[in-house]
Amino acid sequence: MAAMDIIHNNGKSTVRPKRIPPEDKPFYSIIIVDDEPSVQRTTELVLKSAGYERLYTASSAPELEQLLEKTEPHLILMDLNLGKTPRDGLDLMRNL
User: Fold this and answer.
1) Residue ranges of domains in the chain
2) For residue 12, which of 20, 38, 61, 67 sits 20 to 30 Å off, Cα-Cα?
């Protein structure tokens, strides 16, 4: 399941996100990390309506760490303003 396609056209190479076939979407694991429950629910609803089924949510770094012990996600969607300071989400990303 490659995430990018390289398109060659007129001597130029372009990298584009690969479209995920609908039949593969249920097998993609996605973690949504946000400290706002309404954002978690909305994101989860949007992804479910797009065909993704393996969705997990976390509200903090410890919750994310617990999820990462159980699953190897294909994608992590994370709020950069997670926690008490605007840098908490960015710091968590760097630690990952």
Assistant:
1) 34-96
2) 20
